[in-house]
Amino acid sequence: MQHDRLAVIVRAWGREEESWLVSWGEIYAQNTCVDKSDAVWEALDRLVFGPFKYENGNRLRVKAISIDSGDGNTKT
Length: 76
Description:
There is one protein chain. This protein has one helix at about 40-50; strands at about 5-15, 20-30, 50-55, 60. The radius of gyration is 15 Å and the shape is elongated. The chain is α+β, with helices and mostly antiparallel strands. The strands form two sheets. Strands 1-2 form a two-stranded antiparallel ribbon. It has a two-stranded antiparallel sheet with strand order 3-4. It has one domain (about 5-60). The two termini are about 20 Å apart. The chain is built from one helix and four strands; from the N terminus they run E-E-H-E-E.
């Protein structure tokens, strides 16, 4: 999570921790990602809760997410 956008990576996981990149990109905020009413959060919901079409036609859904909201700030 950045101030003006969300960087998104969607991975599918298989047996023995095998993984595949399903989707990646950035969703830009109209104002700021800190604003909970910004449309960026609705766009993330659509991405996360919408199904992904598998190559055989089946639809896959996201079962878990994580958000890195640390913003890179550190204190010494």
